[in-house]
Please model this.
Amino acid sequence: MPTGRVKWFSLEKGFGFIASDEGEDVYLAAANLPDGVTTVKPGTKLEFGVADGRRGPQALSIRIIDAPPSLAANARTNHDDLAVIVEESIKMLDRVGNGLRQGRYPSDAEAARVAKVLRGIAQQIEG
Model:
C-alpha cells in the first residue's frame, strides 16, 4: 500500500491532501478517515489505498502509521475560560433538548456545530 504524509487537512471543509511518497498529491476525504478519527495533523504518516476519484487520486482504507507529537497540552484553554465554554455549551444543549421535547431535531448545520463544540471541549478536557 502507498504511504505519505498529510500536507494539510481542514475539518471545516471536510478534506485535505496527502503528499504521497511517490510524489503525487492524493485527496483525503474526512469520511475516509479511520473509525474514531475526526481530523489529522499535517505531517501525519499514513498508509492508504488509492482509487481514481472525481478529484483525481483519492485515499481509501487509511491507516495512521505515525502521528506527530501533540502540542495540545501546551495549547490547553485556561481553566477559567474553559469553564465559561462549558457553561455556554450547557445552554446550547438545553436549547437542543427543549427542541427535541417539542419533536424538533436540530438542523444539519446546528447538529454539526453542536458536535464540533462537544468534540472541542472533550479534546481540551482530555488534554
